[in-house]
Amino acid sequence: MKKLTTLVVMAAVFFSACSKSDDKPGNSRDLVYEFTGTYTGSLNAVYTNANGTTVTEIVNALPWKKEVTLAASVRGAGFSFSPVVGKPGVTGQTMTMRLTAGGKVKDALNGTADANGYILTLGTMSYVVQ
Asked: pTM score, two decimals?
């Protein structure tokens, strides 16, 4: 009898824990990659497109935003950047790098241009579809 009770409780938890209508950020396939701020230098934005391919796009002005809906076969995405050599901003200018999924910010990083006018790195952001 104890085994049957345990089985019934486990089944109830399993079938009530999640539903397809749960709107958790990890369940969303709608992503927004963006850069905002005062930075006037050029950047190479590197992000995952809808088909799961890594794309590099030159960003010459902020704000910049790219909206992507991941295909059903894509299980994750990444977002990063690198400065374009020879096209710096001005020392002290700032930039925010943001990754949003399902309307909720998943990650945000801030950076400031160095003495040469470059924001060298803020890190790489990743997102896994659950």
From this structure: 0.78
